[in-house]
Amino acid sequence: MGYGKYVLFRIVNLIIVLGIVTLMTAAIFDSAMTQILEAQINEMVQNDLIQYIESMKASGKTPTQEELREYEKSRIELYRKRYGLDKPFWIRILYRVRDVMTFNLGEATSPQISFAGSREVKTIILGYLPNTVFLFTTGTLITILIGLLIGLQIAKRVGSFVDRLVSILAMVSNSLPMWWTGLLLIFLFAFQLRIFPAGGLHTIPPPEDKLLYIIDFLWHLTLPLLTIVLVSFGGWAYIIRNLVIGTLQQDFVMAARAKGIPERKVLYGHVLRAVSPSIVTMSILSIVNSLWGAMITEGIFNWPGIGRLYWVALETNDMAIIIGLTYVFTLIWLVALIIIDLLYGLLDPRVKVGIGTTSS
Q1: Is the Cα dihedral 135, 140, 145, 150 positive or negative?
Q2: Cα separation of 199 and 303, whole Å?
Q3: What is the SS3 assignment for 351?
Q4: Residue 118 predicted with pLDDT over 80
Q5: End-to-end CA distance of the chain
Q6: Average pLDDT value for the chain
Q7: pLDDT for residue 352
């Protein structure tokens, strides 16, 4: 199978998998969403009744109980038809899958969730996502860079003091919960040393000057960003170390050294090239994971990101937000997997991208 056909195959596969996941999600949450919509309809009908009675009184008429019942019945039928509740279960599910897959995600049902006055799920997700990218994705990129640099250096000094120290730091940092580390840093830097704020995006009220606004944002970003890097970089350094150590024992590295190629060129030109597919795979998956944010950590730092949005949606039983987030991140994951497959074939000449087309 050629490269173009393989890409097309993976895109079709992505659409099928995305449709199946969306179908399952819609079916699982249908009962809860139906109950929420029924409650909303009842509330809207009651408001309509109040307005109907007031309009009748304004015209000098008093509606009878029979007229009120007929009006209420007609409004209920109207809203049920509008929201598709008059359709059978499987038709409702198919309509919901169609809407979700075309990014018609509806509106948030919880009054606690909105963005810039909008209750559209798509707008809310796009509004919260940049905050998560600024914090967690930036932290992930910094962690990868530091881990890569440290891992490459200690791999050349296996068994040294620095090697043992980094190994210990990796075990310690990976065992520390991020939210707990965040609490310690808040106590130290925000309440004891008073260097950084305890949380939030900006000082209240935020600075009006654009430059001061950016500086204020970066000031608030520093402490949670430091928490992420501190907890994560040791694990990355240890993984890179082990990948490089394993590759250093390969025959092609021994041959390069025997030819008199400088050690730096062997490390960065041969070894790093060999382990790059694994590093790229881990990096892409880590970046995709970072887009989810972290519920507890965002709560600790009062950071309005995707993790906090998900937490509020779960607390308030906002199914529109939950289904929207599930769909968006399923799509991102599937796209990331396709990118990994394609990059793997470009980075490793021993692999040809396609079905059953590998060569050694």
Answers
A1: positive
A2: 7
A3: strand
A4: yes
A5: 17
A6: 85
A7: 59
Percent of the chain past pLDDT 90, that is, above it, reads 22
Tracing tokens 């019945």 back to the chain, one arrives at 73
For residues 70 and 85, what is the distance between their CA atoms, to the nearest angstrom?
Answer: 19
Q: Is the peptide bond before 205 cis (omega within 30 degrees of 0)?
A: yes
The encoded tokens of residue 215 equal: 């500086």
Which residue carries 């694990």 as its tokens?
235
CA torsion through residues 85, 86, 91, 97, sign: negative
Helices 3-28 and 89-101: crossing angle, nearest 10°?
130
pLDDT band of 358, cuts 50, 70, 90: very low
The CA dihedral of 122, 343, 272, 155, to the nearest 10 degrees, is 50
**Under 8 Å between Cβ of 113 and 312:** yes
Domains of the chain: 3-101 (no CATH), 121-317 (1.10.3720.10)
Burial of 91 (0-12, 13-18, 19+ CB in 10 A): exposed
Helix (H) and strand (E) counts in the chain: 15, 0
Helix (H) or strand (E) holding 51: helix 30-58
The encoded tokens of residue 200 equal 């939030």
How does pLDDT run across 94-106, given as a tens digit for each residue? 888 888 888 888 8
Q: Is 244 exposed, middle or buried (0-12, 13-18, 19+ CB in 10 A)?
A: buried
Stretch 108-117: mean pLDDT, rounded? 84
Check pLDDT > 90 for residue 135: yes
* 228 phi-psi bin (left φ>0, alpha ψ -120 to 50, beta other): alpha
Q: How far apart are CA 262 and CA 248, in angstroms?
A: 14
pTM of the prediction?
A: 0.81
Residue 286's alpha-carbon distances to 58, 243, 277, 282, 300, in angstroms, are 63, 17, 14, 6, 22
